[in-house]
Specification:
The protein is mainly alpha-helical. The protein is built from 13 helices and 4 strands.
Length: 372
C-alpha cells in the first residue's frame, strides 16, 4: 500500500478541519433554534406578556437579553401609539402593534404612514418651540416670585379645556359630535385648574396689577390660538396642552423640593381644604382618566400637602392629554363598571369627527346623528 507523502502537520490540519465541519453540522441539527409562542423563559406569569415570537438557543449564555429587548420594543410601540401616531384608516393594529392591511397596497400605506409621521413631527416641534419660548419669558419675569408665577401658570393652564369644549359644543350644534365623555372630562379638568387658580389668588399671587394684566391677556391670545389649533388638528392641540402641563408639573416639583420644609410650617388655604377634602369629589375623580374613581383621596394638613396635590394633579392632566392624542381613546372614569360590557360598543356608535375638515366631510357623506 502506498503511503501519503503529506507532512504530518498537514494531515493534522486536514483532520481538524474535517472534525470541525462535522461538529458544526451535528450542532445545527441537534440544537436548532427553537421558536416559542408565549412569554420568554423564566417569566413569572404567562398572562402578563402578549403573544410574541421568541428565539431561544439552549447553548446561549445570554438568555435574558431577548426579554429585555422585547420590553423595550413594547415601550417604544406604546409611545408611538399614544404620542406620535394615529392608526391609519386603511389598516388595523393587532396586539403586537404590527399593522395588517385591510385594503389598498402596502406602498400606499407606507407612504401615508411616513407622511403622517412627518406631520406629527412638525406639529410637536412647533409645540415645543412655543412652550420653550413662553417658559423663557416666565423665567425672566418670575425667577424669584413663585406665587405670582403660579398665578400666571394657572390662568393659562385652564384655558385649553374650555377652548376644547367650545369647539365640541359647536360641532354638537351641527350634529357632528355626540361623545359626552370628552365634554365631561374636559370640564372636570377646567374645574380642577380653576381651583388651582383660586388657591394661588388666596396666597396673594395676583396682588400686583401687572401680573393680572399679563396673565389675562396671554389667556385671551391662548384661547383663540387653541380654538383654531383644535379645529384644525385636535392631536396637535392635545400635545401642546401636554407640554404646558408637563412644565407645570416640573415647576411645582422643583418648588416642593426647594421649599418643602418651610411649606410644612404654613397652614393650608381654606379653598384647598374644601376642594380636596369636600364631600362631593365626583369632578375630582372625573379628570383622572388613568385612575379608578375613589382611589385617590388627598389629606391636607399644611401648605406642603396643597402643593404636593397640585403637582400630582398636573401629572394626571399629562396622562389624559397624552391619551387624547389617539382619537377616540378617551373615556370618563365613571363610564366603566364591572358588569357593563356594552358601553364601549355604544360609544363607538355615537357620532364624532376629528377636526373641522373631517367633520365637514362626514356631514356630507353620513346621516345626521341621533341623540341618545
Amino acid at each position: 500500500m502506498r503511503r501519503s507523502k503529506c507532512p504530518p502537520n498537514q494531515i493534522h490540519a486536514s483532520y481538524t478541519q474535517t472534525n470541525m465541519a462535522a461538529a458544526t453540522t451535528l450542532s445545527s441539527s441537534l440544537f436548532a433554534t427553537t421558536t416559542f409562542k408565549g412569554p420568554p423563559p423564566h417569566s413569572s406569569s404567562s398572562s402578563s406578556f402578549p403573544l410574541l415570537t421568541y428565539k431561544f438557543n439552549p447553548l446561549s449564555t445570554r438568555q435574558s437579553l431577548p426579554r429585555v429587548r422585547a420590553t423595550m420594543l413594547q415601550d417604544n410601540e406604546e409611545k408611538v401609539k399614544v404620542k406620535e401616531s394615529v392608526p391609519s384608516k386603511i389598516s388595523t393594529f393587532d396586539d403586537s402593534g404590527k399593522a395588517s392591511i385591510e385594503s389598498g397596497d402596502s406602498t400606499t400605506t407606507s407612504s401615508s404612514s411616513s407622511f403622517e409621521k412627518f406631520v406629527i413631527k412638525v406639529e410637536q416641534s412647533v409645540n415645543i418651540f412655543l412652550t420653550d419660548s413662553v417658559i423663557k419669558i416666565l423665567d425672566t419675569l418670575y425667577h424669584d416670585r413663585d406665587y405670582a408665577r403660579f398665578f400666571v401658570l394657572e390662568t393659562i393652564a385652564r384655558v385649553p379645556y374650555f377652548a376644547f369644549m367650545s369647539v365640541l359644543h359647536m360641532y354638537e350644534s351641527f350634529g357632528w359630535w355626540r361623545r359626552a365623555d370628552y365634554l365631561k372630562v374636559h370640564f372636570a379638568e377646567s374645574w380642577n385648574e380653576m381651583h388651582h387658580l383660586l388657591i394661588m389668588e388666596e396666597l396673594g399671587g395676583n396682588s400686583w396689577w401687572f401680573d393680572r394684566f399679563l396673565a389675562q391677556h396671554i389667556a385671551i391670545f391662548y384661547y383663540i390660538m387653541t380654538v383654531l389649533m383644535y379645529a384644525i388638528s385636535p392631536r396637535m392641540a392635545y400635545h401642546f396642552s401636554e407640554c404646558v402641563e408637563s412644565h407645570a408639573f416640573e415647576t411645582y416639583d422643583k418648588f416642593i423640593k426647594a421649599r418643602g420644609e418651610d411649606l410644612k410650617k404654613l397652614p393650608a388655604p381654606e379653598v384647598a381644604v374644601n376642594y380636596y377634602t369636600g364631600g362631593d369629589l365626583y369632578l375630582f375623580d372625573e379628570f383622572q382618566t388613568s385612575r379608578i374613581p375613589n382611589t385617590r383621596r388627598p389629606t391636607i394638613e399644611n401648605l406642603y400637602d396643597v402643593f404636593l396635590n397640585i403637582r400630582d394633579d398636573e401629572a394626571e392632566h399629562c396622562k389624559t392629554m397624552k391619551a387624547c392624542q389617539t382619537h377616540g381613546n378617551l373615556r370618563s372614569p365613571h363610564s366603566y363598571s364591572e358588569d357593563d360590557d356594552g358601553d364601549a360598543a355604544l360609544c363607538n356608535l355615537e357620532a364624532d369627527c376629528e377636526g373641522i375638515v373631517d367633520c365637514l366631510k362626514k356631514s356630507v357623506t353620513s346621516s345626521p346623528a341621533r341623540l341618545k
